[in-house]
Amino acid sequence: MALFNDRSVDDNQVLSISYEGAAPATQVDLWVRDPVIGALALDWGLSPDSHHFSRWYTESPRELFDHGKSTFISDNALLLRSSLHKKYNDSERFLLLGNRITNGDAKWSNTTPQFGEISFIDGYWEWLEDVLARNKDMLTSAKIYDAVFASLFTYVRNTNLIRSFCELWCPSTNSLHVPIGEVSISLWDLRLIGGLSIDGIFYDEAVPSARELIGVDKKGVPLLPSSCKYLFLAYRKIYCASETSNVTIHDWVKFWFKEESRYKQPPARVQKKRLSEPRTSNNPTGFIDGQKLRSEDTEKVFDDLGVEKDVKEETNLAALLSYWLCVFVLPNKQVDQIRPGVFKVASMMAQGKRFSLAVPVLASIYHGLREITSSPNPSKCGAVFPIHYVYGWLSRYYDSYFLSASDKFNCAARMVRLAGEKKAKHFSPQEACDLLKGITPSTLSLLALTKPKQGIVTDHGKHSDSWNDYLISLKSSYLTLRRGNEHIVEPYSPYRFARQFRFCQDIPGKLREELSTGTLETIYQLWESCTRLNTRAEFMIPSHSFEGLATKEYAEWWEKSSSSFCKYKPACAKPDSSPVAPKGNNLIKISITKSKLASEVTQPLSKPKEKEVTKAVTKEAAVVVAVRPKTPLSIPASKPKPTVTNTSEPTSGRKRATVVLSEGSSSDQGERHWKRGKKKATDSDSQLKEKVTVSDLAKLDFNLHGVLANLPDTSNHLEFASDEREGSVDGPDPFDLALRSKHNSVSGAIHLPSASKPSTSKPLMLGRAAPSTVTAFDTGIVINRGRLLAAKIYDSNIKSILGKTPFEKLTSLRPKLQVIYAEFSKLELDYSPLQSYVEKYIQNATNYASMRSNFASGMTSEAKERRLADVDTKRGQLMEELERLDLEAKRLRESLEGIDAQRAQKQHVVSTLQAERANIEATEVMEPADMEVANNLEQLLKSELEEIQNLAWLD
């Protein structure tokens, strides 16, 4: 029989776990901490309202700075407020880890730091798949199904990117410092990225007393779930069998899960440049099959612990959640051990209780980054926090990972898209630093919630879970984490990175109070203040068209206060000097529009195993290629024609292909130049094999009218004319596939075969070949250019179809879109991002059409008119009441002014009488007449004092 007892050791309470008749050496003692939640929790009441506003925004006309256009505009600024900060201080200066490394005060060692990165544990994936299949409803009730599902994979990082991230992180502001200002990880980011709930019960990681563990209330209901005591019994059993006097996560999984392992440990990660998402992975597929019968060995685990039949599933779920909390959600410096303090929370979660997890997780992340950035040797500082959430954050705001299709996993936690052992893109130290500094204001609000029209939301506590969580994430507060006797406090200042919520950015102030820890009462009250709902406060929610800009004052303050380490622009964003066009007549400069696309080239090698090289190419680009002969290319369309000019440049007796990407037809602004190394001419039969990533359609502005149209055949519109004038390109809005190449290239006839019928157009005409020094004809470049041109045409057709199709008919397009995807495959184009965003657009449009239809059907025109009439009537009544109240307030103000004047006059008279009385009393000998005068004055004084008191009462 299991025994749980409370006893005292050195004035500290201890939970003793043993079995009746067992040797004393098998007894396990655990330190007990005061509970914050549960039947025996201490009652501290609510925190003061000093951290709360009745309105969390302000709006005023300001001078705003547009980073994209580098101009100032006058407009209303919608600003987020903070209750934790005082008025800004112009003298504030920031010091980053990057500055300390530059100054020699800190350095990275050669070791690769983990900082809490999860690793493969044999049996956990199989155990988790079984639990997800059996307990989906309970996990959904606790609002953690997606968050638990996310632990089904491994997450990796590029070391240089994480180091650059830490070098730009400021511990005094808990934000990342980049040239445009501050960005940071918000509570809302963690909800979307990791599926972590913001609202819920306080996360109380502490060992309960025996009284709480096995006690019952007046109605005979256990104070804690029955599964909790079985977790402690399992812990004792593993602890006694362990040779290291602790319970490791390997031992925990091995004890509970006795089924056959199917997954093997992924191979060691090799950091190298990749062209696209890896085709193979050793991670699970994410497909959760139905329940399977447990083996006799697994059933024996429950029998040995004495688990009742009706709580077996709950106990098994609580055991897995204990591992999940220790390893995936809130790891600490004992990264390989199970902490018994999590058993109470895990057992309550297994009964469907919802906990506030985003708050302690973000506190842990902020605290871990503070340890790293404050250490002289960050690699060996020993900081441990759930860094995989940082990886997820980087993948949402930066192009740092190869992301899987959004519909690959049925999971709302967006971090699963970067799951896998080969998903991290490779960056050199300089490339990583440039990537982080190159963030633009337009990408800051990717995850923000918006409304069709800017509007006010009142916190009445009755909104949906997502809106309640969003309102909490907009408020300044202190984040707290309680782990046993460890109390962590970190300031949360969303108004420092307000542009991530589509607000304007203004100068932030300093914290009124610096907190890093506190008593248990303080920890709980700060958490309660952070997550408090039903405050009746007003929040302004910007519309989706509102772009968060910065005030003129902020731009000037940031230029003066920010660290020199974060100021300089990325090397690839603005070259030291504009590229000089070579002289001659055969230079073709093609201006194209902005896009998110980048082509990635695999360079052919003579060895059987080809070496993969990633070509990092940015949006703002123009291609400059030396070619012969001069042949203008024409594609009919309605778009304006970019300018094309021709020149040539001899290089070592032959032509050399130069690729420079820029935007605009006549300006050098935004051009980018890469120096090319010399390369021998390739064999004429060699081909340049390339994979092209197709752009997403997330920001396409589709028209919502039209009918379904067939794909037009545009393959026969290409023609070359033998003409000595400037060439031109006129075609549909392309995918802007930016390409850099080191190979020689010559232009030639390009003809895309028709998908429907043979071409009947005239044969392509080649102009008279001019003298050339080209020694090799690279067919790979020609094939590549044809592939890119085909992608542009397909892009135009897809846009046209989606733009002309009503929302109600979009789903009927899927069969025809599959035909287009098949053509992409033939051209070796990676169309998965395009397919993902097209499906997302179709789904969103379908949902909108359904909602619009339901709303229209649910309210007739007569009902709408009656409702509008009622609103107008109520509005008129309220306006009349407001006018009446204004008049009454004016009358009261005038009355008070008159009373104040009378009071001042009476007080003056009283002062005069008091002075006269004092003079009379000072007389040594008082005549009878003087005595009478004194008495009269005293009576008059009393009368005046009574009148003053009456006036004060009226006031």
UniProtKB/TrEMBL annotation:
It comes from the Eukaryota. Residues 144-559 form the Aminotransferase-like plant mobile domain. InterPro entries: AminoTfrase-like_pln_mobile. Residues 868-902 form a coiled coil. The keyword Ubl conjugation does not apply. Residues 268-290, 632-687 are annotated as: Disordered. Keywords: Coiled coil. This is Aminotransferase-like plant mobile domain-containing protein. It comes from Rhododendron griersonianum.
